[in-house]
Design a protein that fits this description.
11 helices, Dihydrodipicolinate Reductase, domain 2, binds nicotinamide-adenine-dinucleotide, single chain, nine-stranded mixed β-sheet, 2 domains, six-stranded parallel β-sheet, alpha/beta, 358 residues, Rossmann fold, globular
Length: 358
């Protein structure tokens, strides 16, 4: 079988992971046909790393798509640039593997959804956190404990120094939700095995709310909202609670170390930054018993699962769980969360979804 040709769009920060770690296990199934980045220095250095000729390096996505023969593109630009790349890919009938979130605004997500559907291309959105050993083990524990009552997710990082979370994340609107919360809302859907029916809560900046960034040390690291707290009602009658904080001074639960607790009929399953999944349950005498759950090994750990699922899909395999069709639900929850915050109200997430799919 001939190798599928990939155009990488955005070859900066996270694309380093894609080029060095996530794609290489599948080098017998794909090859890089071209790279695109608006930053010429980054582009040249990645091109050199991959041994690509200068004719395969582009600063303009439109030009790359027009001039290079390819089967699919992999989009790893900041969210505000996803829509343009997706629309150009659809016009060229290139299948798409894109980093999360779908886009930076709900309007752009809806436009992407409609364009992808009408063009017939396949689009997979990266939700790598579903496929880590720690989360697969947590899912196994939840399956053992029966019906879910509610789930709690906590994410907390110390990004009080400007630039410590990558420059653009200190500037974009609703930064915690758009760049971070999308992973956690998707994970809460995954753990509750349902979509979000309604969402209520707020995202905020403690400095800005108080009207003076000097009153909350570190909050001037962000132009917009680094903190969030939400309650989710799920479509299957379960509930979830999300806490997100990019100004953590105490205990962090940062990337790949998020805290989750899933309260179920038969007990509670917990996961903290020690990466051990524990089941808490009552013995016959009513005493609390805690036991550790053996790790469930991922077929491909985290991010690497995404190119695997994508290539299988292109070769006629199953539609991956976080294909656009499904992932629009996580993005709807995230943009509904923003509206909930801005309007101090509870938002019907499925009404949001209809705006994209209707
Ligand atoms: N799934 C994950 O765990 C994870 C982790 C980090 C980042 N991400 C996602 O990856 C994407 C990129 O984030 P990053 O951290 O790599 O950002 P980054 O700023 O480090 O890199 C983005 C690159 O895109 C380039 N770029 C910007 N606009 C472009 C355009 N119009 N055309 C071509 N290139 C353009 C920039 O020059 C830069 O080199 C985002 O969607 C982010 O949410 C996902």
């Amino acid at each position: 079988m001939s190798k599928k040709k990939c155009i990488m769009v955005g070859v900066g920060g996270m694309a380093g992971g894609w080029i060095q770690h996530f794609w290489p296990p599948f080098s017998d199934r794909m090859e890089f046909a071209a790279l695109v980045d608006v930053n010429r220095d980054v582009l040249n250095s990645r091109g050199q790393e991959l041994g690509l000729p200068s004719s395969a390096l582009f600063t303009d996505v439109r030009e790359a798509f027009e001039r290079v023969e390819a089967d699919f593109c992999c989009i790893v630009t900041p969210p505000a640039f996803h829509r343009e790349a997706v629309e150009l890919a659809c016009a060229r009938k290139l299948d798409i593997l894109s980093e999360k979130p779908i886009a930076d605004t709900w309007d752009a997500c809806c436009a992407i959804y409609k364009t992808v559907r009408s063009s017939g291309v396949k689009m997979l959105v990266t939700q790598n956190y579903r496929y880590t050993t720690r989360i697969l083990t947590l899912k196994r524990a939840v399956a053992e404990l029966g019906t879910v009552n509610y789930a709690i997710g906590r994410y907390a990082s110390d990004y009080r120094v400007r630039g410590s979370w990558g420059n653009f994340r200190h500037e974009i609107p609703h930064t915690l939700l758009v760049e971070g919360g999308i992973h956690h809302l998707d994970q809460l859907r995954n753990l509750c095995e349902a979509n979000v029916s309604h969402i209520a809560g707020w995202d905020w900046s403690p400095g800005h709310i108080r009207g003076n960034t000097d009153t909350f040390k570190g909050s001037d690291s962000f132009d917009t909202e680094p903190c969030a707290s939400y309650v989710l009602k799920m479509t299957n009658g379960t509930f979830a609670n999300y806490e997100g904080n990019n100004l953590e001074v105490g205990k962090t639960n940062s990337w790949h170390s998020e805290y989750y607790r899933v309260e179920c009929e038969g007990g509670a399953a917990t996961l903290d930054k020690d990466h051990v999944v524990r089941i808490e349950e009552r013995g016959e005498s009513g005493t609390l018993k805690v036991r550790e759950v053996p790790n469930v090994k991922a077929q491909y750990e985290g991010h690497v699962m995404m190119p695997f699922q994508f290539l299988e899909w292109l070769d006629g395999g199953p539609t991956p769980p976080t294909a656009l069709e499904d992932n629009i639900q996580s993005n709807a929850a995230m943009f509904a969360a923003i509206q909930a915050s801005e309007t101090n109200s509870t938002i019907d997430v499925q009404e949001f979804v209809k705006q994209a799919t209707g």
